[in-house]
Every structure is written in structure tokens, then in C-alpha cells.
Amino acid sequence: MRPQVVAASGLRSPTMVLACGCLIMCISFGVRAGFGLYLQPMSLEYGWGREVFSFSIALQNLAWGALGAIAGGLADRYGPGRVVAAGAACYVAGLIGMAYVGTPLGMHINSGLLIGAALGGTSFGIVLAVIGRAVAPEKRSLAMGVATAAGSFGQFALLPVAQALISSFDWHVALLVLAGVVALIIPLSAVLAGKPAAESGAQQSIGEALHEAMRERGFHLLFWGYFVCGFHIAMLTVHLPSFVTDAGLKVEHGMTALALIGLFNIVGTLGAGLLGGRFSKKYLLSTIYSMRAALIAMLVFLPLTPLTLYVFACGIGLLWLGTVPLTNGLVAQIFGMRYAALLASIVFFGHQIGSFTGVWLAGYLYDSTGSYAGAFLASIGLGVFAAIVNLPVNETPIAQRRAAAAPA
Questions:
Q1: Cβ contact 262:31 at 8 Å
Q2: Mean pLDDT on 359-384
Q3: What are the chain's domains?
Q4: 173 FRET partner, CA 20 to 30 A, in 10, 14, 61, 277?
């Protein structure tokens, strides 16, 4: 018995959980961040308008959010290891199917529903909850920032790989090679296995936790703040490369901009994780959204040159996923860790509704008007909205409020 306990302890130590969680985030988010590179070659090969591809990625984001909430509940009830492995298997199947797709319906099923379900099981909600449980509370915000930064590093590292494969071979080969990379998540998921332990104090069912969260105003405010984050990120990830080439710059400029976003987001998410452990998370979120609105306005209203684009990319990269450790950290701080995967995944559904709206709306407006101007102006207004909506969130843990309200 003793050797088995030692081995299990070493395999699932906080350091090992964080390391494997970071690798999973790196692969999952890095592959997904490059989907914008396929918009033009796929649309040209099949004669589709940009709305077909945009709707598929929008559907992917919606499925990611909706099925991610279900995956979060399953992970809290049965353990995250199996859920992450199943998500990785769906991811591999979706990439292979996307490589051989020939119709809009096939595109919607593979890159939309299948990869969306896969991302729900292999990204933020589940992985960050496992890491949050594995580390001490005072280190939780930083650890979540490190894992989110790993996703950003995946974007920085895998985007050039995807572009090189597309340029040297074609987009079909690129998707097949990346499917092999995603398969590495399956063995990594073994370290995340095990059911979450119940917290001390009164036992709470999933239904009771959901009821409590739905009665809390801050839960809804975080949901709609995250909506704006998803709108910004998904729209830029998918449409920025095309926006750049439409303005007369080269494809390489768009790829470099996305890679710079990933690189600077490593610094941004680490910084957000550090600051989130020391300062009010809601004020940090409000600041991030305000600065995003200002940077998008700069991109829209200044002449687009490589310098302007790269300054924008570096600035938006610092703010790109800094919302993730702060928002997930707030959910854990307010509601506790027992059902953190479920509750964080539900809040993340707001992010994915925003992602669906941003990706699809930008493609629709482009096909309708020949310009991305309307979508970018909407992004500016939504940034101001998110900066305001995060301010009323009550950061005091519900358990602490309940204890204070109890009669002596």
C-alpha cells in the first residue's frame, strides 16, 4: 500500500497537476487559436462566402460553452480525468473530419459541434478548477494565471507551425498534423484523474449550488462581462488575418499579429494572476475591458500599417486572457471550490455566447456591407459596457456572508 500511495502522491502532486494542466491548455488553446488561418484557403477552395466559415466557428464557440457547462458538472461529479480524455478524443476526430470536409453541413458538424464539445472538455473551466483545488488558496490566482499563460504560449508556438504547414503543404495536411498533436492530451489527462473532495462544513448538492449561484447578482454580472470577452477574442482570432489583408497588408502580418498577441498574453495573464492575489479582481477586470476598448478604437481609427498593427497586437495581448484567472478566481472566491468546474463553466458559457455573436456577426456584416467596420465599432461599445458591469460584483465569499448573517 505505501509504495502505491507515494506513487499516486508524486503523480498528482500540485506541481505535476499544474505542469500537465499547462500542457493541456497549451495544446488545446494553441491549436484552436489558429483557426482564423483557414478562413481564406477553405472559403476559396470551396467557393464559400466568409459567413459559412464564420458560422461554423461561431457554432463551435456556442457548443463549447453549452457542452462545457455539462462537462464541468460531470467533472465535479465523476472526476475531470475522464472528461478531459473524452474531450481530446472528440478534438482529434473533429480536426480529421474538418480536413476532409466538403460541404457547409460537414463543416458545421466537425469544426462546429464536435470541436466545440471537445474544447468544453479540455479548456478553462475544468482544467483551472483542478489546478485551483491542487494549490493553496493564497497561490490559486497565480496558478490559474500560469495555466492561462500556457494557453497563450500555445498560441504563440503553434500558430507559426500551422501557417508553415499551410504554406509548405496545404490546409488539409496542417489539420491532420495538429490532430496528432492534440492526441497527446489523452495521456496527460491521467494526472487530472480523481473526484474532487467535499469541502468542510455543510454539505451542498449540485442543485443547491446552482440555486445559490443563480440568486447571486455577481454571478450574472460576471456572465455578461465574460460575454464581452468572448466577443472580442473570437472575432479577432478569426477575422483579424482577413481584416489585415483586406487593408492591403500581407498574410504574414496577420499571422505575426496573432502570434504577438499570444506572446504578450503570457506576460498579461501572469500579471493578472499576480495582481488578482493582491488587489480587487473586479476592479482589475474593469480596467482590462476599458483598455481593450481604447486599443480597438486605435486599430479602427488610425491608418493601418504594420507598426500600428503590431502595437495593437502587443497591447491587446497584455489584456487578451487576463480576464480568465480573474473571472475564474472570483467564482472560486465567491462560491468555493467544491463545484468550481460547474459554476466556472456556466459563467464561461456567457463568454461563448459572446464568441458566437462576435464571430458570426463580423462575417455576416462583412458579406452584407463589404467591411468589418460595424463589428469593430460594436466591440468598442461592448468594452465600455463590460468595464461598467463588473463594478457592482460583491467579492465577499458567500460562506462568509452566511456566517455573518447567522444569529449569535
A1: no
A2: 88
A3: 13-194+207-403 (1.20.1250.20)
A4: 61
Q: How confident is the model at residue 382 (pLDDT cuts 50, 70, 90)?
A: very high
DSSP character string of 382-404: HHHHHHHHTTT---S-HHHHHHH
- The region, left, alpha or beta by phi > 0 then psi within -120 to 50, assigned to residue 326 is alpha
Instruction: Reduce the secondary structure of 258-273 to three states and give it as a string.
Output: HHHHHHHHHHHHHHHH
Nearest 5°: the CA angle 68, 351, 345 is: 30
Give the integer Cα–Cα distance in Å for 29 and 324.
13
| Tens digit of each residue's pLDDT (9 = 90 or more) over 126-173 | 888 788 778 877 777 788 778 878 877 887 788 888 888 998 888 899
The confidence score (pLDDT) of residue 2 equals 36
Per-residue exposure over 39-63, b if at least 16 CB sit within 10 Å of its own CB, e if not: bbebbeeeebebbbbbbbbbbbbbb
pLDDT at 197 over 90: no
User: Largest alpha-carbon pair distance within the chain?
Assistant: 72
Q: What's the pLDDT score for residue 10?
A: 54
Of 25, 287, 254, 279, nearest to 141 by C-alpha is: 279
